[in-house]
Amino acid sequence: MQNDILVEIEDAVFGYGARPVLKGINLTAKRGQVVAIMGSSGCGKTTLLRLIGGQIKAGQGTVRVAGESLGELDRAGLYRVRRKMGMLFQFGALFTDMSVFDNVAFQLREHTDLPDDVIRDLVLMKLHAVGLRGAAHLMPAELSGGMARRVALARAIALEPSLVMYDEPFAGLDPISLGVTGNLIRRLTDTLGLTSLVVTHDVQESLKIVDYVYFVSEGVIVAEGTAAEIRASGLPYVHQFVHGESDGPVPFHYPAPPYVDDLRLGAQSA
Amino acid sequence: MLKQAIENLGNHTIQGVWRIGFASRFFLSMLLHSGTAFRRFGLTIREMYFTGVLSLIIILVSGLFVGMVLGLQGYETLQRYGSESALGTLVALSLVRELGPVLAGLLFASRAGSAITAEIGLMKATEQLSAMEMMAVDPIARVVAPRFWAGVISMPLLAALFSAMGVLGGYLVGVKLIGVDEGSFWSQMQGAVDFEQDILNGVIKSVVFGIAVTTIALFEGYDAPPTAEGVSGATTRTVVTSSLVVLALDFILTAFMFRGLN
Q1: Which residue from A175, B57, B79, B95 could staple onto B163, CB 3.0 to 4.6 Å apart?
Q2: ipTM reported for the complex, 2 dp
């Protein structure tokens, strides 16, 4: 059973300077699962992803990916683990001076000695998987937001990783691209047998495709469960989030002095 | 008020020291990760096209005009002492010792340096450098080092072309337009310009300027806050800092190189 776990975080604590962002996170992701990390903006979701990618190190606690504790690895060790990872950045982060083809071929050229014709076939297969084989010759500037993200997805799976991380994959997409991206994440996870970690606040789209959900609020996991369990959750924060209510545990108003005092209504009546 | 001023001064000092430390680490890291720039020299050649070849027009045109002005001004001064035949010497020495490396350095800073900073800064702002890190590819080795060596190789070539165009400009104005004797123009130049003292020192200067300008441009881009204002501020700082550094280094190098000469 232990071998089924690809990502394991135990009591991870992290802060920027004196400001704590993650205050003791526990999370596991099994092989073949799509796991969503949800929470409102600024709650520490992306920081959590950066922790799993080894871009930052936990102040306390451990982060293990494929059995290796990231905090104990040197740069070479970290790069070795990262070859088993793919990451989809929020806006794709495609290399703007390279064509779509060269973007997807980038890792194959950097990390393998494969001949050009084999690389060509592999790249076209990855692009076909995301439906963009016909766009291989285009430059990133010629792509729509949804297409750029699909190319980035093809690039992320170029080396057939065990883990793919998605940072807000649904942000700013039209309904068609939204559905396409969601289906791609699920289909690639199933067909390639990888683990997908999706950081998102798009509840409806992600609940359609995920196996397990973690809710992060103020640096801690406040709820977890399957999509059905999350939909049925009675926790006020989760309920507000899933149903998109404007007021609740996350208040509509930014903390401020009493309204009456601010408008000096008390002074006028006196 | 005084306390605030002291705090600000302390803050600026700490920031300044931190930046110098970070820049030094950046420079060392760039040198240590230069293997890729030479093993896959195609990457460096590609960057030489962007930093060197695309700077050619401004360098050649500026060199020609500077040489033409030198021809006019030099003739005007030299003919007062009946030494107009030394025009070739004046033009050549001014260019290979000083104007070639310095002006090419300043033009290189504004044309190529600003472009390098903007490109690296935007790559950072659009998470392209982070994406590379996540693909287990070191951005210092893959992106920064090839640009550094491209700048270091391009700069002396550009300075040499600047000087060559300047000599041509001086010749056109001095010999063809004003009528200085062609034989004395070239022969005096040939006799007076020493390969080691003049040409080689000029080349050393331009290599040093190339290292300084490219390092500043790359560091500013790499260190730029990932916003539009951050990249624009970094680009401005590249041009200002590298121009001042070129002029300051020129004085220091000149003081060492030519102090024993008559």
Answers
A1: B95
A2: 0.82
